[in-house]
Amino acid sequence: MKVKFQEDSSLEDEIEVEVRASAKSGTVKRLINYVNKFGKKDRNLLPVKTSDRIVTVKRDELIKVEIQGTRLTYYTVSEVVKTTGRLYQILENLNDDFVQVSRHSVINLNYLESLESGFAGNMVAILAEGLKTDVSRRYLPDLERELGL
Asked: Which residue has the higher pLDDT, 31 or 67?
């Protein structure tokens, strides 16, 4: 990765960042996401709107998020919160501790205990509090990279 600085007095107090690559890979997407979040206040609380109230979930207590249809389920250390929504919208509000492991599941790496072989060539992520989730072959390389393998 190359980083260059170019002075431009016409920008005044603005900063313009341009990312150039051969393709929009996962690394490029993470870099853009990181730059977009730069300077913003990073709160530990995630507001979750349920059918009858708004629950605040502490990000560092969130173990995994799963979706079935439009039903989102947040699994935390102390409770399970159900709501509706889209998984990609949730991913935008999570930090680097979270990684998508399938089309329907995001896990917190801090609660990952092990990976085991599952059926049909998939892996199964064993998480804290006795939780499990499938890791699809498509997302396995991203998970391995996040784990430093």
From this structure: 67
